[in-house]
Amino acid sequence: MISFFWSEVKDLGHTGLGGLYMWGQWPLPPLPQRAPSPQFSMPQYIESRRRHRTILRREDKRCWKKLVPPIFMLMLCAIGAQGQHQGHRALQWDQQAEDNPPLYRQGAPTGEATGNDAPSKPKTALNHGPAPPETDPLYLSRAQAVRESPGRDPVVVLNGLGGAGLKFRLRGAKPTRSYCRSWYARWHTAWILPRVLIPPVARCLMEFLTPVYDAEAGTFDSKPGVEVKVDGFGQIISLENLGPSMLPLRNFDYIHGFINFMMTELGYGPGLDLFAAPYDWRYSPDVLKEQGYFRDLRALVETAYVTAGKRRVHLMGHSLGGVVALAFLNEMPLEWKRRYIKSYLPVGSPFAGTVVNVMGACSGYNLGLPLAPSDLRDFEAQAPSGPWLFPQPSLWPPDEILVRTPNQSYTAHDYERLLTDLGLGEASLPVYRHVAPLYLETLVPPGIDVHVIHSQGNPTIASLVYNQSFNGSMAEIPSPPVLIYGPGDGTVPERSLMRPFFEWSPDESWRMTHHVLEGVNHMDICNFRGFFRVLTDILGNHVDRTPAPEAEALETAPDPWKTRLKSAWAPFQAAANYADEMVFGPS
């Protein structure tokens, strides 16, 4: 009997997606609906089931034979769509512009030239307000110029906090919770799949993902027995397919509109002139550097430069990715940056931290997910990227209260006292002391063109009011606070977004522009049509510029056709892996 039921389980695993597809296509012998009767002995029942499995296997093969041609045709269509002419794209854009017209640049000062002939100013502030009913001709001309240019400047994108998928596997780890010990020793997707929304599973995953700080060596690493990695370096699809499409998690669809716009409206192709550099967002830049991320990012920029025909790269980072990109640029020699980097584009980047991260360390912040914030508190307090993004004391005065309780008040100058009162003196306080000086090193002008882009006019958390005092126990997590709001983009305070514009002084060798968008928040800015308008303006201005100096000899760039074929196949592979994991669980 045991062998019989085990064969049933193996049979279910064998049929897989082919069996699921087949059940809706071909009639099969009906399964017995009741236990075998005396007239139908157990051996006969087992024999009938074996015959049924034989039919399943035969139909499974027929299923895949019928599925191969459609899959192959879809791959060809995906490849051909990247190389189509722009005729139908312009019509598609016109229809979308009527439904939701893009923003336009408000009136320029008298005597200021516009377009490609305008002299570049070292420091320019641009406000983008509501669009007129008609289509902006300057915008359409810029988009057409980018599409029709013989070569497009490549773009490399860095994700924000929580914006890259993480995988983990266990190698002898001993979880503290008993229900966390059933994970297999193979790679599992930890961030983010539907099972993360189950509270016990969320607690397990947060325990596995929480880094450990070695105070003596001054280094961070994953917990002993746990390995964590980021998949898809260089592939833009690694940022697009972050969350499950079946769930309404819009915070994890934050870059889909940007990718679609770049490919359909500007003619960019994944692996050709559009790349992604996902990183482990748990860590601060110094840890990423030690782990070799900066080395890999430099190689990716050089590869993009060669693949795009020796055209310099636009380095774009959303939210935390913009600050990580700045830390990377500050590590590179100026000669290298001016040879390979055309501009630096931080989008909604917290250059002076956010109050949201303080709330994450106090009571937890769920990142817009249907999770209990307390399940993420320990992770957010101990991961270096959390304390690293605390509001900086240089921009928050000593009399501005960030956290208030019935007995105490805390400012940006009281983080050590705050963490001690929360009971995080051993777990989080050493982490804060390690990352606190890093902002003084990262906020240095990169020496190349800078385009600061962010939104405004959204209520943003500015202060936290707790109805209970902190008793110094790490186990007792405070209840969610009452939120006091201020100006910002919905996540990052205004002073943090605008810090570069106030503190940096461009010279003749580089310029800086400041683009402010209205009517969009922090998480939706990369899917906002006003952002597309600004991006087209920036890329259009760079179309006719003088080519970069000849670079040193580099390794041969990857074959564009192989890269395109791999990018076209990636969605099918991701869908198959996701479906198998949903049906059969972690493998």
TrEMBL record:
GO terms for biological process: lipid metabolic process. One of its GO terms (molecular function) is O-acyltransferase activity. This is Group xv phospholipase a2. PANTHER family: LECITHIN-CHOLESTEROL ACYLTRANSFERASE-RELATED (PTHR11440). It comes from Nannochloropsis gaditana. Residues 99-137 are annotated as: Disordered. SUPFAM superfamilies: alpha/beta-Hydrolases. It comes from the Eukaryota. It holds the Pfam family LCAT. InterPro entries: AB_hydrolase_fold, LACT/PDAT_acylTrfase.
